[in-house]
Amino acid sequence: MSTLSPVNRRRFLALAGLSTVAAGCGTALGGGPPGKGGTRTLRYQGWAGQVTPAELAQDLGHLKDVKLEWVGNTISGPQDIQSAATGQTDFGGAFNGAVVKLAANGAPVKAVISYYGSDEQAYSGYYVRADSPIRSARDLIGKKVGMNTLGAHSQAMLDIYLQRSGISAADAGKVEALVVPPVNTEQSLRRRQIDVAVLSGLLRDKALAGGGLRPLFTDHRLLGSFSAGTYVMTRRFVQQNPDTVRTFVTGVGRALDWARTTPRPQVIARMTDIVRRRGRNEDLDALRYWKSYGVAAPGGRIAGKELQLWIDWLAERGDIDRGRVSLDELYTNDFNAPAPVSPAASGR
Prior knowledge:
The protein is of the alpha/beta class. Helices cover 38% and strands 18% of the residues.
């Protein structure tokens, strides 16, 4: 997730490391002892200079008596969910492909709510220079596409774009996906070191403000609005702390809805105040560019198709054994209580 750039998007680290941690996840307990009441404190990792949906939910009062305990920051979604899977934290978030791969490698995790995605405001775009001859998917054959990591969201969207455009697997294999650090992607494109740049969030907005670029496609144009990442907990933690999980998930869902329906300047002002008050010596500048969490469904409810897409893509690549992932076991909306409907909204 990223409140700054939804597919900056967790600054994806390579997925390969997920299989290593999964081996040690079978006995992960999560925080707090089992019991009738369970824990009411949730340990988590934050993101420097950003306000996560969970942090926003706490500040809005939607978590009620459930408290968040910050244990440090992360720069990686896969690392964040590894920490949750091994019991170092009680929840973590990552893009859905990382969640699927972690589960396929034996980690007993369950996705409980979506927390970032792609919409008209929060999306990843595939940009070319204004004078580029690239106008269609077929024009990408033999060209270089720069992205922040391989085997994750950006490469999956590229593959889907090529496939839906009728490009054969053999020709698609001639499109070269390259790793380019996000802060260097725009300049690599302008200097003609790559032919296409994947840009999102703050880096996208700054690049477009400089002119001379045009979109080939975006993930939002390709798939419409969709949620791209989920918060996960271990199945054991969920079983031992159902009331806490329900309060947390419902509260985060209401915070997502608040951010969606509240004027953007007001949301940014609230986020800025949160970051200032927590006193972690963070740069506030990036918050000015926040536009949306991008979550598709009200309350952050998870759509099975958003996880199934990754099961299919990773299995086709040979990255996972399809038989080791059960969609029904991978996620739940059972703890996501619907928001109360006002008389005006219900027509009464």
